[in-house]
Amino acid sequence: MRPLLNQLVGGLRLSALYVLYNMWLSLSGAILCTVVMFLICWITALLTLILILALYLIIVYRKPDVNWGSTAQAQTYRSALEAVQGLNHVEEHVKNYQPQILVLTGLPSARPALIDFASLISKNISLLICEI
User: Fold this and answer.
1) What is the distance between the alpha carbons of residues 8 and 40, in angstroms, rounded to a whole number?
2) Which pTM does this prediction carry?
3) How far is CA 93 from CA 26, 97, 108, 114, 125, in A?
4) For residues 73 and 119, what is the distance between their CA atoms, to the nearest angstrom?
5) From which residue to which does the signal peptide run (predicted)?
6) Residues 6+ apart with CB under 8 A from 87
């Protein structure tokens, strides 16, 4: 359902993420799921749809001044977080050692030589954080 909504609102291109994606197949799947909900228990399905409609109308009526963010930003953040967490499971080896340096410089512009030295050690391929 998410790819369908992204395509309808003109969001990011999902061709790399969903190779076999088709908007109409996704819409028909959502409609089929709704029909199956009504076939299983029409009372629960009706209450669910009424609740969803009520929540939607409350949000539209109140018009909160909120930045809901985009799915592209959320996906980028989530991917970065998972990649960083995945680094915990990678064994260190001499060939792929990358130092992670925290340089306590105070104001970074006050000690450019210290930052340059740390940059030489990390060679612009590692994490280098300068802290005030």
Assistant:
1) 29
2) 0.41
3) 45, 6, 31, 27, 16
4) 29
5) none
6) none
Residue with tokens 């395509």: 7
Q: CB within 8 A of 6, min separation 6: which ones?
A: 12, 14, 71
C-alpha span between 44 and 19 (Å, rounded): 35
Q: Measured between alpha carbons, how far is 106 from 15 in angstroms, rounded to an integer?
A: 46
pLDDT, residue 7, reads 59
Domain boundaries, the chain: 2-72, 93-132
Give the integer Cα–Cα distance in Å for 50 and 121: 61
In contact, 1 and 52? CB cutoff 8 Å: no
Euclidean distance between CA atoms 92 and 64, whole angstroms: 48
Please report the pLDDT score of residue 6 as a whole number.
63
What tens digit of pLDDT does each residue of 12-63 get?
555 556 667 777 888 899 899 999 999 999 999 999 999 999 999 998 899 8
The pLDDT, as a whole number, for residue 58 is 94
- Both tokens of 129, joined, read 């954080």
